[in-house]
């Protein structure tokens, strides 16, 4: 972690739940697993496997509070969080 530069605030897009697209295929089995998940659920898979589509669809109908954080290789400074 570098201390030479001030921390950059997280972009709003990194903690906004993406909208559900109309053409998303329902994944009922995986959505039901999210319903029975713990206080924190981490969804990890290769790019293009439908993580965002799955979780945003589930979040839209969950009926429970949902916090969303999207991270990538540029988010490597703990001070930002």
From TrEMBL:
Record's protein name: LuxR family transcriptional regulator
Xref: SUPFAM superfamilies = P-loop containing nucleoside triphosphate hydrolases (SSF52540)
């Amino acid at each position: 972690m570098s201390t030479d530069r001030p921390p950059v605030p997280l972009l709003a897009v990194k903690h906004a739940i993406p909208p559900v697209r109309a053409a998303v295929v329902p994944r009922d089995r995986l959505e039901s697993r999210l319903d029975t998940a713990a206080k924190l659920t981490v969804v990890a898979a290769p790019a293009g496997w439908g993580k965002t589509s799955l979780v945003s669809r589930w979040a839209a109908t969950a009926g429970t509070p949902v916090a969303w954080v999207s991270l990538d290789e540029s988010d490597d400074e703990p001070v930002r969080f």
